[in-house]
């Protein structure tokens, strides 16, 4: 009963303190939580009245997040899976692509942690595993939208970033969205990361995670998780194998499939077609398709990342008229996210991709899904075409099949209740890009390398496929396929069925081993001898590699060094300027008679040519202008010969010269005669030079032989040379011959003996000496200098040097 004042007025209410307010708020939250738990317990998961999210017993933060994200009506998989998951049952959910499976497990995750009053101190409560990074990012974005009013901390662990930075924040996360490999790495290496309190484990695209690609990672990951947990598996094609369920410790799972009773495993709004086109013509068909659908948004699936790179790079240079993007697993994480964002925001675009975006990734408004390479099975086909016709929107898909793949693949799709219709390409829509690809591969080695890798990766993928009724490598025209890629030849394939790989690798060694041919010798009693084959050295092999632009020339020089040793000796020659007396003496031949000089007429004057240099100076332009008639222009060819320039005649002057055909014939004959004369002169000059070089080499060899004989007999080489010169002059003929630079041999060797003695001799090269020859030896020690005219090159040179050293 309220206390009244004396004047009859009621007393004001007392404002509760902060402690009382927190107590009252906590009490109301506990009452609401108790009501929520009671509503979940009373929920009938198979009730037909559950059609909207408001019909489910959800907490206020989850309901507000769904309402803010404009999620109101439940899809079939959500209406059947969420009530079961709220009851704590293990779920095996299978639904068509684009049917809302993400919310089917995110809502139970948020509700489970909310009812358990999960806090940051409790550690990891829910773990969501995705097979690809793109799908993990998409799940995390939906989680951020729906759970925006919750106080849980959520993280994304997909690799591509620093492991240390992720490990520092990992311990504070309540919900983690991850890929199997990166999560297993943290479980093994991060010390403070504990998962003992895990409440839920969710596997999105579970059939892909459970296959051979992720089997070992998932098995190792499950060993770290506690047994007492709730597990949910969702996919468009669910696995029901007992072995898979036992590995994940599922307890009496509830199998929910919303399309088993339906007539098709794909959305009814999806139009599906396939085209029979031979493997070599697939790129031509693809290019023609893209050119026909420029105002569309399409995804082109290929079987390997190397094919994606080649098709993207080649089509990008062909410029079909639509923005092109490419996505594969070998790209950096930042690039993959940026490409995914750009393609999602684009209105018209073409994305070349592998199966990294074949599952679960939601690209808005995709018009076409083109599968250039046949998928490995019907499940992969279903996931690929699921990138279009999502959430009851329309979409179209087309599959390219080689004639050898048609029967087997169509049979597999019919078994999965996939309605697909065969269509044909119009002839006027076909476009051939073979010539452009060949031109680009010829001009760009990088593109040719990508084409080779694309060819090999495709053939490997076909060879490794398990379904041999669909994939028949022997029936594919690989030679024509390589030519259509722009390659000049078919790359070598080392994995054909029935071939022994070790035998192929060891084939070069077998060819180099000793042969088995034997012959008998009567004198040795019929002993067998093995004929050893010649083994090539490393340098010889390198020299044969003509495609190398640097090393091959280097190693070829190493091999040919010995053969070119004789030519290198005359590479440098020392020239000496002769005085007037020497020039006069040099102008005489061996018998003392004057040598005829060459005379050049320049106008009214005559000039004697006594050297090659003087001849070139007299033929210079200035001399010609000075002594010849002025006013006539002359030009010089590459050899220094002067002739009149070729000037154009007037039309009348040209006609007076005679018929054009006759003039042409006359010019051709004149030039041919001139070329023949020049060839004769060139051949004679070259022959003389070779003869002169050969005589010089023989003279040097005779001098060296005489010098060696003198050293062996105890007399100097100079004395023997003197005696030999008195008997016969071997260089007499050589001195009389003209040399290449215009000097006579008498310029060098035709002087008298007195002048030769007075002329300073070139200092001989010394191989070994203790003191200088001009210096006196030190007291108490006698020194002897051994002079060598050249470096020792043969065994005789080394013996002569050794004998001289022993005499010291």
pLDDT < 50 runs, ≥5 residues: 496-502, 509-533, 548-552, 562-575, 740-758, 762-781
CATH architecture group name of one domain: 3-Layer(aba) Sandwich
**Strand content range:** 5-15%
Strand order in space, largest sheet: 3-4-2-5-6-1-7
What's the average pLDDT?
78
**Alpha-carbon distance between the two ends:** 141 Å
Q: How many strands in all?
A: 18
Helix content: 40-55%
Task: Please tell me what the overall shape is.
Answer: elongated
Question: What count of helical segments does DSSP give?
Answer: 33
> Might you state the CATH topology name of one domain?
Rossmann fold
Question: What is the CATH first-level class name of one domain?
Answer: Alpha Beta
CATH superfamily of one domain: P-loop containing nucleotide triphosphate hydrolases
Rg: 48 Å
Secondary structure class reads alpha/beta
Instruction: Describe the sheet with the most strands.
Output: 7 strands, parallel
InterPro entries: DEAD/DEAH_box_helicase_dom, Helicase_ATP-bd, Helicase_C-like, P-loop_NTPase, RNA-helicase_DEAD-box_CS, SPB4-like_CTE
Subcellular location: Nucleus, Nucleolus
Enzyme class: hydrolase
Catalytic activity: ATP + H2O = ADP + phosphate + H(+)
